[in-house]
């Protein structure tokens, strides 16, 4: 990777107030707490009310970031929102953030790389700052997956939650955050996890078109557990690091059992792993920044720690990044 000139300098997050517990789900579909905990490790998730949208969560995450950041965000020159559940196809969520915070001179766009979207956003922000094109970029992962969930399908509705996490990436040549990255795509596996607005055929399979998520959980599980350890190895080799050099591993919080299996295969202790899945469910591209912010609140993650972020999801797509945590301790 070209020498990075970008540092992650601030973080904030927001989850909606409404809790959807396993007990609540027992009243909606034929499921039970024991099955959900045993297969996913999830106890509850937060979901938005009818009139609360992805932009609302992202705005609150940025406001939370501003409380923890002693400089201005008026000079942000690009807003990247990673989401698969934007309020509208356009205007983007990113444009709604510009309008809310009145940043005078900023670009703004939404990015869709599903659960790998936040790490994609960081990768793009690092590239744009290190090349000299931008100086200060907001990267936000925000999702309201509850609005794209079929609450009659017990194999998917127990998994997903809503939330948003935001970080600021700034020019800092002296003390950059980004060490190495790995990106990849497996388009052939796209049929295993999709959200279609239109009925169409893909790879010989007729996809449903009701706007909800559809997944073959077992296939996604197998793919992630097989491919993430390989990607992790590549990432570490590129950085000339060993697993022991990593302070924190932050994989996409899809399912706690998946995370345990990935950690076991990669010889990473669960004690060195940050996740948001237990109380927030799978929040797609918000899950990694939510886990990072939780790590700060639990006083685990500190300035200067070496951290591996690894997003993976629908597409199928993945992005891993090794960073030095650059946010000053609160
Ligand atoms: N409660 C009770 N029983 C259930 C439930 C439920 N909520 N859901 C499924 N079952 C039953 C099934 O009907 C099946 O019963 P049967 O054996 O009588 O047919 C049995 O449990 C096993 O079903 P599987 O689907 O094979 O269960 P599995 O062990 O694979 O777990 C799960 C399912 C939790 C979905 C798992 O496959 C998984 O987590 N996959 C990965 C999902 C994921 O991460 N997806 C998203 C990536 S994020 C993104 O990009 C948006």
Automatic annotation (TrEMBL):
An annotated GO cellular component of this protein is:
cytoplasm
- The catalytic residues are 115, 252, 282
Localization, per the record, is: Cytoplasm
Task: Give any Pfam family that matches.
Answer: ACP_syn_III_C
Mind listing the UniProt keywords for this protein, alphabetically?
A: Acyltransferase, Cytoplasm, Fatty acid biosynthesis, Fatty acid metabolism, Lipid biosynthesis, Lipid metabolism, Multifunctional enzyme, Transferase
Q: Which stretches make up the Beta-ketoacyl-[acyl-carrier-protein] synthase III N-terminal domain? A: 109-187
**Major location category of this protein:** cytoplasm
Q: What are its GO biological-process terms?
A: fatty acid biosynthetic process; secondary metabolite biosynthetic process
The UniProt entry, under Gene3D superfamilies, shows: 3.40.47.10
EC number(s) from the headed UniProt entry:
2.3.1.180
Region ACP-binding: list its residue ranges.
253-257
Give the highest taxon in the source lineage: Bacteria
Q: In which pathway does it act?
A: Lipid metabolism; fatty acid biosynthesis
Residue span, Beta-ketoacyl-[acyl-carrier-protein] synthase III C-terminal domain? 236-325
Q: What is the similarity comment for this entry?
A: Belongs to the thiolase-like superfamily. FabH family.
Domain observations: The last Arg residue of the ACP-binding site is essential for the weak association between ACP/AcpP and FabH.
| Biological role | Catalyzes the condensation reaction of fatty acid synthesis by the addition to an acyl acceptor of two carbons from malonyl-ACP. Catalyzes the first condensation reaction which initiates fatty acid synthesis and may therefore play a role in governing the total rate of fatty acid production. Possesses both acetoacetyl-ACP synthase and acetyl transacylase activities. Its substrate specificity determines the biosynthesis of branched-chain and/or straight-chain of fatty acids. Catalyzes the condensation reaction of fatty acid synthesis by the addition to an acyl acceptor of two carbons from malonyl-ACP. Catalyzes the first condensation reaction which initiates fatty acid synthesis and may therefore play a role in governing the total rate of fatty acid production. Possesses both acetoacetyl-ACP synthase and acetyl transacylase activities. Has some substrate specificity for branched chain acyl-CoA, determining the biosynthesis of branched-chain of fatty acids instead of straight-chain.
- The identity of this protein, by name, is Beta-ketoacyl-[acyl-carrier-protein] synthase III
Query: Which organism is the protein's source?
Result: Alteribacillus bidgolensis
């Amino acid at each position: 990777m070209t020498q990075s000139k970008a540092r992650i300098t601030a973080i904030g997050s927001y989850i909606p107030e409404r809790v959807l517990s396993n007990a609540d789900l027992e009243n909606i579909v034929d499921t039970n707490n024991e099955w959900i905990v045993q297969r996913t490790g999830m106890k509850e998730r937060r979901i938005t009310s009818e009139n609360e949208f992805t932009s609302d969560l992202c705005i609150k995450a940025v406001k939370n970031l501003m409380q923890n950041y002693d400089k201005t965000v008026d000079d942000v020159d690009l807003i990247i929102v990673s989401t698969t559940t934007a309020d509208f196809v356009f205007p983007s969520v990113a444009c709604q953030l510009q309008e809310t915070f009145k940043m005078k001179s900023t670009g703004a766009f939404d990015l869709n790389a599903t659960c790998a979207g936040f790490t994609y956003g960081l990768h793009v922000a690092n590239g744009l700052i290190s090349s000299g094109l931008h100086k200060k970029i907001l990267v936000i992962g925000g999702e309201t997956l509850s609005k794209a969930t079929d609450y009659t399908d017990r194999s998917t509705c127990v998994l997903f939650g809503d939330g948003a996490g935001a970080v600021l990436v700034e020019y800092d040549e002296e003390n950059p955050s980004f060490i190495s990255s790995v990106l990849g795509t497996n388009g052939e596996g796209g049929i295993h996890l999709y959200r279609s607005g239109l009925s169409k055929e893909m790879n010989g399979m007729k996809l449903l078109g009701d706007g909800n998520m559809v997944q073959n959980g077992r296939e996604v599980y197998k793919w992630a557990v097989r491919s993430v350890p390989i990607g992790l190895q590549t990432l570490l080799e590129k950085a000339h690091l060993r697993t022991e050099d990593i302070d924190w591993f932050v994989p996409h919080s899809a399912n706690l059992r998946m995370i345990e299996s990935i950690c076991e295969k990669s010889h990473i202790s669960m004690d060195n792993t940050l996740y948001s899945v237990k109380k927030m469910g799978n929040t797609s591209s918000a899950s990694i920044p939510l886990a990072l912010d939780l790590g700060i609140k639990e006083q685990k993650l500190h300035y200067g720690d070496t951290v591996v972020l690894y997003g993976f999801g629908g597409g199928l797509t993945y992005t891993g990044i090794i960073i030095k945590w650059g946010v000053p301790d609160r």
